[in-house]
Amino acid sequence: MRLLPAVLIALAVAACAPARLERIAEKQRRAAVSPTDLHRALEGAQDAAAKRALGEWLAGAPRGESTVDGYTVRFHQGGEGIYAADYFDRLEPASRYKVTGLAHHQVDGIGIPLTGYRENRHRQAIERWYPPEAITRAVTAVAVRKGAREIEIRLHDRLKTESIMLAGKRQTLAGDFTVPWTAMLEHTRPLAQSGITAVIRKKSLRESGFALVEEYDPKRTPVICIHGLFSTPLAWAELTNELWADPAIRSRYQVWHYLYPTNAPALYSARIMRGQLDELRKHLDPEGDDPAMRRSVVIAHSNGGLLAKSLAVDPRDAFWDAVFTRPLSSLDLTHDERRTLDEAFYWKPRTHVDRVIFCSVPFRGSNWANSWLGRFGQRFVAQDDRFQDFFRGIEKKNPGMLQPDYESLTRGKVTSLIALSPKQRSMEIFDRLPLVKGTAGHVITGSRDLFVAPSSSSLPGAESSFEVPAGHGSFHHSQAIEEIKRILLLPEAR
């Protein structure tokens, strides 16, 4: 019995990348700044002392017009790639902190790297799709001379802007990508705990949904990251940090995370995810003409890979004929019930999905689910009642509608662990469905994976397969991260 906690801990370790900030002593910071440094910064000086002085002033500066050392200082009103000063509740120099738990990625250049903090109170409609814990942004502030004694402060979105024209020449912006990201991660302790609790609780602490971890950009391709069993989007903390550190990738892609409770069967969670993705895309691009919406890349780990695969297959009658004894059209259903069943069994592949990177995915199930340890663990996995309640409701009106193999949909226990058994008919059907033409599949596996065997993690027709010396958390390995970067820089699959 002691093995179960060990297994859960192993999975949790594979899924998490903890990080934190350590504040540099205020006395040490202030000692490095002289009274004349701020004046020199407003004059255009870009040495370290001048930058520190301007950064410290910005942290406490009024957001309107102010007078500093004889200069009138105003903030840019905001625009493409530039934040309005009042967007943030707080600005703080990134240089105030050291990072532990993640590689600290910085870029030298002009301007002062800052962290912009904004409490997510849904002041804008899009904030429904930003992390509820906090909104943080990598900002680079630049002081621009507008007149003899006038200075404009521009708060550049560093993920969108690599360089600017200043003093007649193009110059690279300084940047810190890791401190702002770690600042957000420090607000997510309850989310970290929910990786395990979401499996053993009937109701999740947080509802499933997408989180855009940077400002939406209508020009850059989404990279959609889907976590695995016993996990949360925090699994992608390290990879997100590494993708933002690569100028070729951050100029081409934006990162989205998806959260789902991992106690329900993957195909049930996949239906909810597809609907939420459609809703998000419609919200972001109601006119349907954003370049970003033409193409998506999905990176998925373990059980999340089954959700991801559902975006790129066409099931037709495969699942319906296996589950039901009668056609959909002959069942007594409400409009909403019919629509739910149609999307659950006859869904259409999402044609915008260009590539899917599958990391340690059990396409043919996991023998661990059938072992005594897996059977013991199933006692602790909470069932999502919404799943069975739906089928119980429609079976009352349509007795005899289920094939014998699927009578458990209305009685017995149906969970994510049970659904991962290689003996499950649904796993066999899903495994036989190929990726649709136009969507490329890539496989990354760990040579020391104790949960998913090589025979289960392979994908027929994959464009590439790559093994790293790692366990189930293969995507954390440095070689896997480099492989993901290589795939992201490939031409479109279509």
TrEMBL record:
InterPro entries: AB_hydrolase_fold. Keywords: Hydrolase. One of its GO terms (molecular function) is hydrolase activity. It comes from the Bacteria. This is Alpha/beta hydrolase. It comes from Luteolibacter flavescens. The lineage of its organism: Bacteria, Pseudomonadati, Verrucomicrobiota, Verrucomicrobiia, Verrucomicrobiales.
